[in-house]
Amino acid sequence: MIKKYMLIFALTLSATAVFAQDIAAERAAELTNEMAQILSLSEEDKAKVYEIQLNRFQAAMEIRTKYVDDADARKAALRKVYDKLHGKLKGTIGSDKMKAWGNYKRNY
User: What is the mean predicted confidence (pLDDT) over 76-84?
Assistant: First the structure.
């Protein structure tokens, strides 16, 4: 009986992790496709941007899970992720395209 509950718990836990990864991948793909369309990214740049965005969404989900009860720590950790995101994207697609992306997001 205990083995049965342990198995159910393990399957539930793994299903949650897989679902979270699917959400991160979907959000990263949507954002990457939008950036590629607006900024006319090459396929190589698009692949790099996707990886950066995927890592960002996965890190953000981990932080939100870890700091569920501590809003200040969660905000500080998420701020670090977003600051790194900007630097990585700027290094990948260049400052001109990052400015164009910023202008698009402000006007969107």
Answer: 93
User: Which pLDDT value is given to residue 93?
Assistant: 95
Length of the chain: 108
d(CA 54, CA 85): 11
Q: Is the dihedral of CA 65, 71, 74, 78 positive or negative?
A: positive
Residue 20, pLDDT > 60, answer no
Q: Would you state the structure tokens that stand for residue 105, as one six-digit string?
A: 């997001």
d(CA 66, CA 2): 28
Q: What is the CA radius of gyration of the chain?
A: 18
Contacts (Cβ under 8 Å, ≥6 apart) of 49? 32, 35, 36, 41, 89, 92, 93
Domain assignments of the chain as residue spans, ordered by start: 22-107
pTM equals: 0.76
